[in-house]
Design brief:
This protein is α+β, with helices and mostly antiparallel strands. Helix content is about 40%, strand content about 25%. The protein contains 8 helices and 12 strands. The chain has helices spanning about 5-10, 20-25, 85-90, 110-115, 120-145, 150-165, 180-185, 190-200, and strands at about 30-35, 40, 50-55, 55-65, 70-75, 80, 95-100, 100-110, 165, 170-175, 205-210, 210-215. Helix 5 packs antiparallel against helix 6. The protein is globular. The N and C termini lie far apart (about 50 Å).
Length: about 220
């Protein structure tokens, strides 16, 4: 059974395709399930397929020479990843791991290259790659900050933009984050992140309940930066 087209319509990479295109595409998608903590693929196995998170969440990370994990991104349904490695044939310097019970569908290189001949798909892919570049620039900007609290502030502001949901009282980041996970996103220790989060809470810039961050005014997080 193929993946339903209602889901595929929500995938940014396939947004330029018609329903007929999506029905044909769904027959070539392969679905796999992963348990929390299971590696979807290591660095040396990238470049084989493009992947779409159907359920759950994955993290993209790499291990630094210091032995510390640096989280490059999280992907939730219906986000996709792996398209850049398919384009240039190179491996990506990162490992993808399931954060929770996760279902992923993949499209192999042959079918991906066939889609590249469709102008609507190619146009959408260019837009996706531009967005990836902007994300990379934002990550570089965060990592260039020497002050750990400034990194935390910028990371939370970025998450409000990418995973935020307007609610009464501000913006809720729609993902549960531990202090360690947030620390690993910006390259600081968990202890440093905990101190920074406590200061931000004392200044009423954020509220944290059961690992969910509520930000009353996201722009205040970066006013001083």
């Amino acid at each position: 059974m193929g993946v339903d087209i209602e889901f595929l319509r929500r995938v940014a990479l396939f947004s330029g395709l018609t329903d007929d295109d999506l029905r044909a595409l769904s027959r070539h998608l392969v679905e796999r399930r992963y348990g929390a903590g299971e590696v979807v693929f290591p660095e040396e196995e990238t470049g084989r397929s493009v992947y779409v998170v159907r359920e759950g969440r994955v993290k993209v990370s790499r291990w630094l020479a210091s032995g510390r994990e640096l989280i490059l991104a999280y992907h939730d349904a219906p986000e996709h990843f792996g398209e850049m490695a398919l384009l240039d044939g190179r491996t990506a310097p990162a490992t993808v791991t399931a954060v929770s019970r996760t279902s992923i569908v993949s499209l192999d290189r042959v079918r991906f290259e066939a889609l590249l001949r469709e102008p609507r798909f190619s146009r959408t892919l260019l837009e996706v790659l531009c967005a990836r570049c902007r994300d990379a620039w934002q990550q570089i900007e965060i990592m260039n900050k020497r002050d750990p609290e400034a990194r935390i502030r910028m990371a939370l502001h970025r998450l409000c933009k990418s995973h935020g949901c307007p609610v009464d009282g501000g913006t809720r980041i729609e993902m549960r984050l531990t202090h360690r996970e947030l620390a690993n996103m910006v390259g600081v220790t968990r202890e440093t992140a905990t101190r920074a989060i406590a200061r931000l809470e004392s200044e009423k810039l954020i509220e944290v309940r059961s690992r969910v961050f509520l930000v009353p005014d996201p722009d205040r997080l970066i006013e001083e930066d």
